[in-house]
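Example 282, ligand adenosine-2'-5'-diphosphate.
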Amino acid sequence: MTEQTPVTLDTAKPVPTLPDAQTVTQVKHYTDRLFSFRVTRPASLRFRSGEFVMIGLMGDPHPETGKQKPLLRAYSIASPSWDEELEFYSIKVPDGPLTSRLQHIQPGDEIILRPKPVGTLVHDALLPGKRLYFFATGTGFAPFASLLREPETYENYDEVIITHTCRDVDELTYSRELIENLKSDEMMLELLGQENLDKIRYYPTTTREQSPKMGRITTLIENGELFVDLGVPPLDPATDRAMVCGSLAFNHDIKALLEKAGLHEGANSDPGQFVIEKAFVG
Ligand code: A2P
């Protein structure tokens, strides 16, 4: 008698135990403050690159009733709209109600994902131009990770300039690797084309640890260093467009600089010269 090898069906999926459950497929930790993860994508979910969804975990049981409520936060989708999975880039806040637990997820675990994408960092809200700036701090890079992998990003512009400012060098790893991979990946070359990949200009800066380029991007705009380094003219509403994603204070400060340069904020219903989204934490 020969022993039979047990057969496992590749297609077998775990039965969802959470409302709107999706399964974690990959987790990558960058620093003790930052990680990214990928989850399965609901078949019905359509979104525009740059949008966000609410994701989370079940909260702790209520001390008296024992009832559990979902603990949800807004997260920009970091993967492009054509990707079969969804990617997210997150901070780990030690005492953050969600991220203190979310940082421990493993492949195979489930998270909650409400499939209702929204957001302002979309091409529909911007007028065509010559140069498109993506200004990001910290995890505010996430929506740009999506947009940089989207062919539409390159259609209306000659240059796509991505600035990413973090406290330390290691916190730039996610954006640096993503852009390096974008430029060396055969599939991305085929999808975006060499001409479009050549439009990408990456400008990373740090504020607390020594690196080749130091300083807040707001300072580098104000003193003109950004434009001298890139060899481009200062911000001009006739040619320049911007998408901004970072902390509240950062968004506030850069908005003032963009408006001072004569750029007007756009919306889905009324496209303009820049759009802003808060990078969500918790
Ligand atoms: P800084 O180190 O000078 O505070 P965080 O990790 O706190 O979210 O910050 C991410 C990056 O954004 C840091 O390099 C930080 O610089 C920078 N930053 C914070 N607030 C502002 C602001 N109002 N304008 C420009 N950059 C800012």
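Summary: The pocket of adenosine-2'-5'-diphosphate is lined by residues 137-138, 165-167, 207-208, 216, 218, 247, 249-250, 253 (CB under 6 Å).
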